[in-house]
Specification:
Rossmann fold, 2 domains, Dihydrodipicolinate Reductase, domain 2, six-stranded parallel beta sheet, 31% helix, alpha/beta, seven-stranded mixed beta sheet, 26% strand
């Protein structure tokens, strides 16, 4: 299969590295409206560079890795490229439910699979937790807490589209969307959500959000996210309070258990940091793509629910 990349920023390299490590697929073209950036990446990897999506030819798989608010426009344009059967779209798929529906409709009309990139699902610790939740080993899930306490300094928000309302969207979309997706992955559909957002740094977007959610299952919990911790990232953590166990996970992108007390299960003797899928998650993603394991990607409804929650709390 021949692959192309739309958007030659930082995340594009992660896709290219994953493509290079995946059998049966090869990168043949990159696209960016900044022809200098496109040519630099194309020269480095020995592929074609184009400035316009309309100039892409003979591509089977397109990965959209442009800034968040541009995803809807670029995905719809990508559906018109002859030969494309699959479009991968980096997180978040869009900033609004309306645009999300439009994107999926455009892909469906042309028989194209639109697959969202939430590679944190393939993080070994998250995968482990999902398995025991799916097996019912924890019984009823009473409550959860997720905290994403990160730092993005003022210089970060002076770079390009960062911090802009129409392209960035704010802390939930740009920094914490993986954890919004994880909520839906773990606990199912949301029944109700309320929250408050803070914007004390005079940005176009909210820098801090606190939300409470109730799921159809009855599970309740909180999600707190900020980019305003002092000097550096402070913590990423998940706590689950359940009928048959209590769990706390933390570390970069959730890479370790700090507390694990579950009926009938010994604490896992696994070094989750040695195989952290935040670094190799895109490799897993392309492997699942080649194996046509579309069940390993978020469903359309999960994507819609996640965007709906983030939109509600961010605008």
């Amino acid at each position: 299969m021949k692959a192309g990349i739309i958007g030659c920023g930082r995340i594009a390299r992660r896709h290219i590295e994953a493509i290079q490590k995946t059998k049966g697929i090869e990168l043949t073209a990159v696209c960016d409206s900044d022809n200098v950036r496109a040519n630099e990446l194309a020269d480095e990897f020995g592929v074609q560079a184009v400035e316009s999506i309309e100039d892409l030819r003979e591509i089977d798989v397109l990965a959209v890795t442009t800034p968040s608010g541009l995803h809807p426009e670029h995905v719809v344009q990508a559906t018109r490229v002859d030969g494309v059967s699959t479009i991968l779209c980096e997180k978040p798929v869009s900033l609004t439910v309306r645009e999300t529906v439009k994107m999926y409709k455009a892909a469906q009309e042309r028989g194209i699979s639109l697959l969202p990139v939430y590679q944190n699902r393939y993080n070994p610790l998250i995968d482990y937790l999902h398995n025991i939740l799916d097996q019912g080993r924890l019984g009823k899930i009473y409550q959860f807490a997720i905290n994403v306490f990160w730092n993005r300094n003022d210089e970060y928000f002076q770079i390009g589209w960062h911090g802009t309302l129409d392209i960035d969207g704010g802390v939930l979309f740009t920094q914490a969307s993986h954890y919004v997706d994880m909520l839906l992955y773990f606990f199912g559909p949301i029944r109700e959500a309320k929250g408050l957002s803070g914007d004390l740094r005079n940005l176009e977007v909210h820098d801090s959000v606190s939300a409470v959610c109730k799921f159809e299952s009855g599970t309740v919990g909180s999600l707190n996210a900020t980019v305003s911790t002092y000097r550096k990232n402070y913590a990423t953590e998940l706590v689950i309070i359940a009928e048959k166990g209590t769990i706390r996970a933390s570390g970069q992108n959730l890479s370790q258990f700090d507390f694990f007390d579950v009926e009938g299960i010994e604490p896992p003797d696994i070094d989750f940091t040695a195989d952290n899928a935040h670094k190799r998650g895109h490799e897993e993603l392309y492997r699942y793509l080649m194996e046509k394991r579309y069940d390993m990607f978020p469903t359309y409804q999960e994507v819609l629910d996640g965007i709906a929650l983030m939109e509600k709390l961010s605008f």
